[in-house]
Amino acid sequence: MTHETPKQRLARCTAAIEKNPTSASAHFNLGLCHRQAGRMGSAADAFRKATELDPAMAKAYVNLGGAYFLQWKFEEAVAANEQALEIDPNLVQAHFGMGQAMLYLKRPEDVVRCNRRVIEIDPQHGAAHYFLAVGLLAAGDPRGAREELSHSMSLGHQPRPEFLRELDKAEKKILAASVEAQDQGESGQGSEEQNPEQ
User: Fold this and answer.
1) What angle do CA 128, 62, 147 make, to 5 degrees?
2) 72 in a structural domain
3) Looking at the structure, do residues 173 and 145 belong to the same domain, yes or no?
4) Where residue 164 sits, what CATH number does that domain have?
5) Residue pair 80/65 in contact by the 8 Å Cβ criterion
6) Is residue 101's pLDDT more than 60?
7) 71 and 120: one domain?
8) Is 38 within a domain?
9) Residue 84 sits in which domain range?
């Protein structure tokens, strides 16, 4: 079996559309071809056409969401993944892709929600545990973030150094606040005047 070059693959996928322009699969395959070549605008056009021809093709919506994401069109990425989930509510890729877009939209509660759903479907999804940790930290829960980070690392996912620094900072801040509160509590004990007549 000969290996197909990207140029040959593009020619084959384009020919398939010329032969059958109403084939959703042919447009989907062309989208994959463009995505592999890094042409995200063309990939999005092809995936969008596939969804028009077959509105039940969930994988076309997921890939459309991915193409939008890689173009920094995060709202559109969310919308495409929501369409996929209307067709199949258990699509791990759609929940995960939506969570990634929510991260860039600075919506930590939605990052948490999406990654929790991924983990419900696939408990061994190391990246989902990691991004759940990221969402939890952004939402103000460093303890939960540390637990999910540990879980993700046990599944082989390596955290970004920037995240580790932010988590350490958040944990130190909580520890410092706890020590300060404890010091204030101790300094308040026994400071009330006593009645010398007693």
Assistant:
1) 5
2) yes
3) yes
4) 1.25.40.10
5) yes
6) yes
7) no
8) yes
9) 13-105
Span 41-76, pLDDT tens digits:
999 999 999 999 999 999 999 999 999 999 999 999
* 146 and 133 Cβ atoms separated by less than 8 Å: yes
Closest CA to 148 of 186, 179, 119: 119
Size of the chain in residues: 198
CA angle centred on 68, ends 62 and 120, rounded to 5°: 40
Do the beta carbons of residue 62 and residue 93 sit within 8 Å? yes
Greatest extent of the chain over all pairs of C-alpha atoms, in Å: 105
Here the tokens at position 181 are: 């509160």
**Number of domains composing the chain:** 2
Please report which residue ranges of 71-188 form alpha helices under DSSP H. 74-87, 92-104, 108-121, 126-138, 142-154, 161-188
Cα gap 14→79, rounded to integer Å = 27
SS3 breakdown of the chain: % helix, strand, coil, rounded to 5? 75, 0, 25
User: Is the four-CA dihedral 59, 80, 38, 108 of positive or negative sign?
Assistant: negative
Q: Which of 48, 82, 105 is the last residue of a domain?
A: 105
